[in-house]
Write a structure and sequence with these properties.
Blueprint lengths: L1 E3 L2 E3 L15 E6 L5 H11 L3 E12 L1 H12 L5 E6 L11 E7 L2
Parallel strand pairs: 3-4
Antiparallel strand pairs: 1-2, 4-6, 5-6
C-alpha cells in the first residue's frame, strides 16, 4: 500500500488475492485480466469494500463481452448505477472502454 496525501493506493496483480480488501474505499479501479469472468469475480469479491456513493471502474472493457457486463449490471439497478464510457482512438483498438459503476446503497 502507498499513500498519496490522504489517498491510499492499493495495487494487486492477482484477482484471486483479496487479503488487502479489509477497508472501505471511495474508488476501486479494476485493471485486471480484461475478461468477463475476471471482471465479475473481482467485482463480487471487492464491492463490499466500496463506500456508498463510491466509484468502481472497470477499464479496458472489450466489445466482445461488454453486452454481458451490461446485462449483469442491469439486474442490479437498485444497488448500482453504471455508465459506459466509449473511448475511441485511431491509435488504440476498441477494447479500452470504461464501465463506471456507482454504489447507491
Amino acid at each position: 500500500m502507498k499513500r498519496l496525501g490522504s489517498i491510499q493506493i492499493v495495487f494487486s496483480k492477482d484477482h484471486n488475492n483479496y487479503l488487502f480488501m479489509k477497508k472501505l474505499f471511495d474508488l476501486i479501479i479494476d485493471d485486471g485480466l480484461h475478461t468477463l469472468s475476471a471482471g465479475i469475480t473481482f467485482f463480487k469479491n471487492s464491492i463490499d469494500n466500496l463506500k456508498k456513493n463510491g466509484l468502481y471502474i472497470i477499464e479496458d472493457v472489450g466489445w466482445r463481452y461488454m453486452g454481458e457486463l451490461v446485462k449483469y449490471f442491469n439486474k442490479q439497478r437498485d444497488i448500482y448505477n453504471y455508465e459506459l464510457v466509449i473511448l475511441k482512438s485511431e491509435k488504440m483498438n476498441n477494447d479500452n472502454n470504461l464501465m463506471v459503476i456507482r454504489r447507491i446503497q
